[in-house]
Amino acid sequence: MEVAARGSGGPLKSGPVGEQADEQADEQGGRSRVRLNIVLYVVALLCVAAVGLAGSRMWSSHERDGGDRSGNWFSDAIAVITDERLAVAPDTRAGEDVGRGTVSAMEPAPEEEQIRTAEQLEAATKMVNAFLNINYEDVEANIEAVKSLSTGQFLRQYTNASEDLADLTRQAKATQTGEVVWAGLVAGDPDDATVIVATSGTVTNELTEFEPQSRTYRLQLDLELVDDRWLTSDLQYVE
Questions:
Q1: Max CA-CA distance within the chain?
Q2: Is 177 helix (H, G, I), strand (E, B) or coil?
Q3: How far apart are CA 131 and CA 116, in angstroms?
Q4: Count of other CB atoms within 10 angstroms of residue 158
Q5: I need a surface site. Which of 68, 122, 174, 215 has the fewest CB within 10 A?
Q6: Structural domain count, the chain
Q7: Is residue 169 domain-resident?
Q8: Which domain holds residue 155?
Q9: 3-state secondary structure string, 107-135?
Q10: Looking at residue 151, which CATH number applies to its domain?
Q11: What's the rounded Cα separation, in Å, for the pair 143 and 148?
């Protein structure tokens, strides 16, 4: 871990006093993160107004980034959801002169790295499916499924928030479904990884008059290898 040097004007902390201050800061930060996770999850279950805005942003981003919009409105909508891109043959431009250089075909990653990446993506997908699929009639089992795939700080935060989450879910009679549309590795090594996951699903509750409302999310997960299992150490919503 890299630690930034202190500015010349700041007091240095050392000994028991500094350690106590660090512990207090960590405890306060942990409580803040717990409250934040509760708020985020309740928003995920109960928010209705954000659907149109999120869909508009996703549609615009998809078109701006070169999304496949060549079909009718139905196929275009599916392309937006799946983030489908116009098909390009992977090696057709190899050797082409592009001005200051040429396009070169990349060598495939070593087999060990490919296997590890597949395991990381599978673990992230499994966690997101557990995290997003929740039913007020069986919320305790849903929560236990998430905890079984968690570790470290996220496990502690989620465990501390789980009672409130269960109560809020039952009070709203909320049911949420979600499935992974795509998952991509941001960074990974033999011990940890960061994965972005896009999802599509629905939510029903008292606010929706128990009519399913579409939901799309993007989540970032930090994974750690613990006893040969990839577990989630952090999870957050991203735009």
A1: 68
A2: strand
A3: 23
A4: 21
A5: 122
A6: 1
A7: yes
A8: 26-84+112-238
A9: CCCCHHHHHHHHHHHHHHHHHHHHHHCEE
A10: 3.10.450.50
A11: 9
